Amino acid sequence: MINQQKLDDLISDIEYLKYEIQSLSKVISFVPYSRKPLGGESIIENLLSINSAQSKIVTVLEALKKQGEEIQLNDFSIFERVELSEEEIEILTVSTVLKDIEGLRTDLVNFLREKPSSYFEIEMTEESKPVSVLDILWAMVTEERKSLKEIAHLVLTYQSDKQFQREIAARPKH
Fold first, then answer.
1. pTM of the entire predicted model
2. Which domain holds residue 64?
3. Of the four, 27, 46, 148, 170, which is 20 to 30 A from 154 by CA?
């Protein structure tokens, strides 16, 4: 049996992303969110990976309602990272991606708050191993924290670069 405090903590952690997104939306348009760092993902790709994972989890939870515990999580590739070409990235607007994340997250939190603790104990199968709803949701939180840390690092790096460029431009020329 899962205790209520653990569930409350989980739902609070899941809801936290919504507030992170609201904070990000204030600064993200001032940085090159579509620029891919060497060997890494752009900010917008990180955001799309977060949104993709939560969308797939919602799909899994809906399938769970229809199929019961017969779900194979391998079929969903929940935490597969989103990689886009430069052309695909240029088409996207970060504000739309942020709104999509926030809207879906609100729906997910509301859905989870309505569920009894027994719901989170329901198990599915991944690579022949049992995985509970609780396990999937904690994995989502863990992956999101990694992505948000990477996004924060990129935002700080880009802001530092901008400040450095301003300082260079302000120096007297000899």
1. 0.86
2. 4-26+41-162
3. 170
